[in-house]
Design brief:
The complex is a heterodimer. Chain A is of the alpha+beta class. Chain A is 21% helix and 30% strand. Chain A has a three-stranded antiparallel beta sheet with strand order 4-1-5, with helices on one face. In chain A, strands 2-3 form a two-stranded antiparallel sheet. In chain A, a hairpin with a 5-residue loop joins strand 2 and strand 3. Chain A starts with a strand and ends with a strand. By secondary structure, chain B is α+β, with helices and mostly antiparallel strands. Helix content of chain B is 50%, strand content 11%. Chain B is built from 16 helices and 14 strands. Chain B has a five-stranded mixed beta sheet with strand order 1-2-10-7-3. In chain B, helix 9 (182-209) crosses helix 11 (233-247). The N and C termini of chain B lie far apart (56 Å). Classes of the chains: A alpha+beta, B alpha+beta.
């Protein structure tokens, strides 16, 4: 049950400016590319990922991390 | 009666704002910033030729994200003529700016910074050992200035022994050039800037001729391209000029405030000694609380913000220093809480001009706090000596006398 997918995580590349907060705050879900821009490691989230995902959503200075919960 | 009250209450604030000098705002402008955020978030000062002031986080972020309206073609009040060349990349707007940033992106990447970290950790330990052996002293002179400045110069590929000269030049550009003293400003333009340009031109020439080039910024710069076109010598100099201003001031300034805070808040210090894993978030919290920079933009469009019209052609100062304490953005904004989350501060800027060296700056601050608390966990301000700090576009602590406990 806890393995069910509950949402999708992505970075809005039009807003992202490469602060790198997403992979600092939520290293299981994000990683830097070779110049330090964040990218999603795992876009399909399970319920146990949500706390870490929300940490990145709330901590991004550009509000570029988007979490879409499945209806 | 309410109207009378608000008029009398509002008048001093209006006068204070009208007379506000962003280059020299007095000893502690945070009281004024708070009033501005609440009562006149888009304010106008008549000093320094006249300019607008934004004090709220959200307004400042909107401006930083909108270079088509808030342009970097002017980056100071009063506006200086660009007869000495534009700083690269700060003085450019997209899309030209984007071309420069793409070229520079890998130079200060997290990978590059990770390789720098062990050396930085050893370096600050050496400075701290000296500081402890001396029984304390001026923390800025012994640690907070040399640590980030030497780390930066080595990353650049410039000789560490030139630090004092480069810091002196940096202070001329960041402080004297932005002061009201016309004679001194002219001296900087006529004498100092050509000297700095000559120094960088020589460093570039020496590196260009070097057979086995080391992996550092100076080498990258000799090979740098603007799109497909190699940088001109002038572009290389203007890049180094910019990097010098960015790398030799901000970490020293921030670290001074952080150590001053830890010296005067033993319970916060103890928390980090007991839970060192909190140090990265503590540095974010202190960057929020002690944001040291304010930025200038030039309006290339007329913008209406909070009901106030900011006309095209005017200058606008973005008080990042105020944004970190905005009660609309943070609960308990005046309290330092090392467990605070989220922290979405603008101390390192935002939008396309986000601090290029932010990964390096963050590493330096975290390593510094970790090593300070390991090597000299308990210290306080030496009350027999004077602590000195300065405000302005780039605030910082100039003297921080400490005693080791």
């Amino acid at each position: 049950m806890s393995d069910a997918l509950v949402g999708t995580l992505r970075i809005d590349i039009d807003e992202c400016q490469g602060h790198g907060r997403c992979y600092a705050l939520s290293p299981d879900l994000f990683e830097p590319d070779d110049v330090g821009t964040g990218r999603v490691r795992r876009s399909k989230l399970r319920s146990q990922d949500l706390v870490e995902a929300e940490r990145a959503v709330e901590g991004c200075p550009e509000q570029a991390v988007v979490l879409e919960l499945d209806a | 009666m309410t109207a009378t009250d608000s008029t009398t209450a509002g008048a001093p604030l209006r006068d204070q704002v009208r007379e506000f000098k962003a280059n020299d705002p007095g000893p502690d402008p945070h009281v004024l910033f708070e009033q501005m955020r609440q009562e006149c978030p888009v304010a106008h000062s008549e000093e320094l030729g006249g300019y607008w002031l934004l004090s709220r986080h959200q307004d400042i972020h909107q401006a930083l994200k909108d270079p088509a309206s808030f342009s970097n073609s002017a980056i100071s009040v009063p506006e200086h003529e660009n007869d000495r060349g534009k700083l690269i990349p700060l003085n450019y707007d997209p899309p030209e700016h984007t071309v420069f940033r793409i070229e520079f992106a890998s130079w200060f990447s997290p990978d590059v910074v990770r390789r720098t970290e062990p050396g930085a950790r050893k370096r600050i330990a050496t400075y701290l050992d000296t500081f402890v052996a001396n029984g304390g002293g001026d923390f800025i002179q012994t640690v907070a200035e040399p640590f980030p400045c030497v780390t930066f110069l080595l990353a650049m590929g410039l000789p560490a022994e030139d630090m004092e000269q480069l810091v002196e030049w940096k202070n001329y550009l960041l402080r004297t050039l932005l002061s009201d003293d016309i004679e001194k400003v002219q001296f900087v333009i006529d004498e100092v800037i050509p000297q700095i340009g000559g120094y960088f031109a020589a460093a570039i020439a020496a590196r260009t001729e070097m057979a086995d080039k080391p992996e550092d910024v100076l080498t990258y710069l000799t090979q740098a391209k603007r799109g497909d076109v190699p940088f001109t010598l002038e572009e290389k100099i203007q890049t180094l000029m910019m990097f010098m201003l960015a790398g030799l001031d901000t970490v020293t300034g921030t670290l001074g405030y952080i150590v001053q805070f830890l010296a005067t808040h033993p319970e916060h210090r103890q928390q980090l000694i007991d839970e060192p894993e909190l140090i990265p978030n503590a540095c974010e919290e202190l960057l929020r609380y002690f944001s040291i920079i304010s930025l200038t933009r030039k309006m290339t469009k007329t913008v209406v913000m909070d009901g106030v019209t900011i006309p095209e052609g005017d200058l606008c100062v973005l008080l990042l220093q105020s944004a970190g304490r905005d009660g609309l953005q943070y609960e308990r904004p005046d309290e330092v809480d090392f467990r605070r989350a989220p922290i979405r501060h603008l101390a390192l800027g935002a939008g396309p001009h986000r601090c290029l060296g932010s990964h390096l700056a963050r590493m330096e601050l975290v390593v510094a706090v970790e090593e300070i608390l390991r090597i000299m966990p308990h210290f306080e301000i030496d009350s027999t000596q004077e602590s000195v700090h300065h405000w302005g576009f780039s605030a910082g602590v100039d003297h921080l006398p400490l005693v080791i406990k």
